[in-house]
Amino acid sequence: MILKRIKPSFLRYILLAAIAFVVFFFVFILSIYWGAWGKIPGKEELSDFQYQRASEVYTADSVLIGKYYLFDRQPIAFEAIPKNVLNALVAIEDERFYEHTGIDYPSLGRVAVKTLLMQDQSAGGGSTLTQQLAKNLYPRRDRKKANIVVDKIKEMFIASKLEDIYSKDEILTHYLNTVSFGDNTFGIESASLKFFNKQAKDLTVEQGAVLVGMLKATYGYNPRIFPERSLTRRNLVLLSMANNDYISAEQKDSLTNIPTKLDYRDFDNNSGLAPYFREEVRKQLLKWNDKQKEEGNEYNIYTSGLKVYTTLDYNMQFWAEEAMQDHMKSLQSSFEKSYGKNAPWLKNKKLIEKVVKNSDVYRKLKKQGLEHQQIMDSLSLNKELVLTDWDGEKTLKGSSIDSIAHYMKILNTGSLALDPKTGAVKTWIGGVDFEHFKYDHVAQSKRQVGSTFKPIVYTAALETGTLPCTYFSAEEVEYENLKGWTPSNSGKKDEAYLNYSMEEALSHSVNTVAVKVLEKAGIQNVITMAKNMGIFSKLPEQPSLALGTGEIYLNELAGAYASYMNNGKAVLPYLIEKITDRKDSVLTKFEPKRAKTTAFSEETRQIMVEMMKGTIDKGTASRIRTTYKLNNAIAGKTGTTQNNKDAWFVAIMPKLIHVTWVGLDNHEIGFRSTSLGQGANAALPIFAKWMQEMNKHSYYNEITQAQFKRPNPATLEMLDCEPVKRDGFFKRLFKNPDKKKTKAFRKRNSG
């Protein structure tokens, strides 16, 4: 009787509780739908969402070499996604994709039963691809477990709307364009380029399976980090494809036996081809972007999916970097051996302390209010260091001061190759390692240019009436009005009785003659000539200008030398040909910037080219012929600055100008000897090794086999003289070679 009285009441409570739960759940669902737990996007918003697209940088020969992005994403159309990738995705992630309308209720029920009743944590989430797309478009902001139910329901609502708006093919396309593949890489196209260096449309079945397999755990199944796990996961994807009749059992078995071969390309700003060039392009893009905003055009180089087509030649840049690395590794070894155990980065405590005080880490601690000794004590503490050199990374115990001293000794370089007719940059190397040396020696560094300035001096002299067969004494002169300054020549050759023609003096880089040629031309005339040739840096109005004491940007020097192959007109090196939007509609085209007027006459141009040919054939750069066996048509000039701190080489070819600088970032350290640090030894080999590689490829014959135009007969006649004349008997009789000639330097202009 008691049970009979209790039963109806008990059932009533159960029923009321069930109704209350249903009502509560229904209200809870409605509250999510109405936006109480965060706004749910409407159909209008969902039908017009925009991807954040990476901007792409291409070489002149259409090779993708870099990207600028917040998220590395390159969306593609459905037609560009191979069928095998779509099949793999559906097979492993959502078998009933083509049957459900955004929510797979049987799958959801199965997961609920396994998770709640059977406590099976491996049951999965039951999310369809449409729900996953919803999550990709509107990422979960809060990872707390309490919000998972809310997020899941919100995604179900969004998924239902997506299914109403888009076709199944469009949903798959959006999914594969938004899904993360880890390492800030989004979308199948970017992933394909990163892991296999090919567009998604070219992926093989097994390669597509690798990428689709990553989606379950982008780190755990990353084929670069965990190749064995990735292979197992790939084979599971292939099995799912076979089970769903997308491939046959025989195909599955065959593909399973194929090893995974990656062609990994990380579009990281610190790595890859031409990082200094890409950084300079980025800076120029930002300036362009600012101008576009002023004109009312809103672009963002990190999200607008711009395409930047540059002047760079992929192969030429690749070989240039190889040549640089090959030479600099060898030169670094010789450089360190020349100093031995007494190297300044090991023994010169004052210099080391000076460099430390200029370091970022010192300045940071200084801003925090620490005194000098406190900072030095802090930086002297030993810790685990990772140091990089040409042998790779090495881990050792040391202090921050040890690290700074280590990088003090690293030789650096900058080189640039351009088309002398247009200024289009073909190669650009701003340093030896962008990750550790961000400073760009092409665009940012002003260094003394040494003897590479002499051709400008000689050009000015010819323009002011000096004939190429004018002879200048090589004798040293002490200039009384310059505090006894006495320029001298390198080497031990006795030149007191010798007189050089201009060609001989230039080809052998005779310092004493260069100063006398400057004196004859006039300092102001030389500075004006430099300006007309595209040198905009302020130059010293001193006789030492003839020896290259002026500090000039490398790209300035390249543009000036281009005038010798461009009818006397300087060019401004440029990097970008055009910028387009994501659909390749041209937004801006960049035209070459060339001087409107000639800096010198055609006669002077021909004479200077002939004289600089002598530098290569018999002068300071003759190892181009003897050591490197290059038979190309080349003129040029070597350069070495005081105390062997800067080494230069400029190569002039009919269709190419190449400038190379080598030295240390620290101006207080130079090469130990001229034989090691001269331009012909430290800088020239980078060009020579590069040109050797260029000569192997007939595709570049138009550049490598181009010939200089034959000079006019009158020009050749003007150069037809003995290279060296010795003083006559009586002049030698009354000249004391051990006594320096003294005179005042004539600073007034001539001509």
Structure commentary:
This protein is an alpha+beta fold and 751 residues long. Helix content is 43%, strand content 14%. The protein has 31 helices and 23 strands. The strands form 8 sheets. A 5-stranded mixed beta sheet has the order 2-1-5-16-17, covered by helices on one side. A 5-stranded antiparallel beta sheet has the order 9-8-21-20-19, sandwiched between helices. A hairpin with a 5-residue loop joins strand 1 and strand 2 (64-68). Helix 19 (454-463) packs across helix 22. The protein is elongated and about 140 Å long. Mean pLDDT is 89; it is low at 115-124.
Largest sheet: 5 strands, mixed
Query: Percent range for helical residues?
Result: 40-55%
Whole-Å distance between the termini? 133 Å
User: In one word, what is the shape?
Assistant: elongated
Radius of gyration over alpha carbons?
A: 35 Å
What does this entry show, briefly?
The chain has 751 residues and is an alpha+beta fold.
